[in-house]
């Protein structure tokens, strides 16, 4: 996989706005502040493509990024942000669930967790949902530059046990050091070739 072009095709606020062109969609999912924007910027090799550290003050749309004119990376709003109202949280989860429920072109998911923290109940719920939907997924453990090698191994065990995911499916990732980028390209290739 080489990423040659990327453009924001649509920021969708309801399902009628989802692209309907038959191209494969791969979702990027995670808690707010997990490093999702940095992850997207790193794999597409652009500094400020996805906006880093947006403080959610309003409902966020689902961003459909068209990559190489051949598939979409679907940037779902980060969940679990503490400082927003219950109603807004509910609206977010409805937006995320609606997408995951109705998207017929969704073929894979990249689930992000912070390597320093045990996955939360929300993460476990999301993971179970991906499994239930029989989606091909990979777990990305972000900010791996913050831990040493031994700590990384320990964290991978915790993530693997908490999410009930094989360790082989977890990629330690650092936007700072660009660790794990090739694993993600391999993953994207495997979904697109399927
Ligand atoms: P988002 O809310 O999930 O989109 O997260 P952001 O990409 O905005 O990142 C949240 C914070 O984590 C920012 O302060 C980033 O600089 C920091 N961050 C993201 N990725 C990394 C990483 O790989 N290493 C380190 N050390 N910090 C990171």
UniProtKB/TrEMBL annotation:
> Could you tell me the superkingdom of the organism this chain comes from?
Bacteria
UniProt GO BP: division septum assembly
GO-annotated cellular components: cytosol
One GO MF term on file is: GTP binding
Q: Which coenzymes or cofactors are required? A: Mg(2+)
Q: Does the keyword Nucleotide-binding apply?
A: yes
EngB-type G domain spans which residues? 22-194
- Gene3D superfamilies named among the record's database cross-references: P-loop containing nucleotide triphosphate hydrolases
Q: Which keywords does UniProt give here? A: Cell cycle, Cell division, GTP-binding, Magnesium, Metal-binding, Nucleotide-binding, Septation
Q: Which Pfam families match?
A: MMR_HSR1 (PF01926)
InterPro entries (alphabetical): G_ENGB_dom, GTP-bd, GTP-bd_ribosome_bio_YsxC, P-loop_NTPase, Small_GTP-bd
Entry-linked CDD domains: YihA_EngB
- Mind telling me which SUPFAM superfamilies this protein's record contains? P-loop containing nucleoside triphosphate hydrolases (SSF52540)
Biological role stated in the UniProt entry: Necessary for normal cell division and for the maintenance of normal septation.
Concerning HAMAP family, the annotation shows: GTPase_EngB (MF_00321)
What family does the entry list?
Belongs to the TRAFAC class TrmE-Era-EngA-EngB-Septin-like GTPase superfamily. EngB GTPase family.
The name on file for this protein is Probable GTP-binding protein EngB
- What's the encoding gene here? engB
């Amino acid at each position: 996989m080489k990423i040659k072009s990327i453009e924001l095709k649509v920021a969708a606020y309801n399902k009628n706005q989802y692209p309907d062109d038959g191209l494969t969609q791969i979702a990027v999912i995670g808690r707010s502040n997990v490093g999702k924007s940095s992850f997207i910027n790193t794999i597409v090799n652009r500094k400020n493509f996805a906006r880093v550290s947006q403080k959610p003050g309003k409902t966020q749309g689902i961003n459909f990024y068209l990559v190489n004119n051949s598939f979409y990376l679907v940037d779902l709003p980060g969940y679990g942000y503490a400082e927003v109202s219950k109603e807004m949280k509910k609206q977010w989860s409805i937006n995320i669930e609606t997408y995951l429920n109705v998207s017929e072109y969704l073929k894979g998911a990249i689930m992000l967790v912070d390597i320093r923290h045990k996955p939360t109940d929300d993460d476990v719920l999301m993971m179970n949902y991906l499994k239930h939907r029989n989606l091909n997924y990979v777990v990305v453990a972000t900010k791996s530059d913050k831990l040493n090698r031994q700590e990384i191994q320990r964290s991978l065990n915790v993530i693997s046990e908490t999410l009930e995911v094989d360790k082989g499916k977890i990629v330690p990732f650092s936007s700072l050091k660009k660790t794990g980028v090739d694993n993600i390209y391999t993953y994207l290739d495997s979904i697109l070739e399927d």
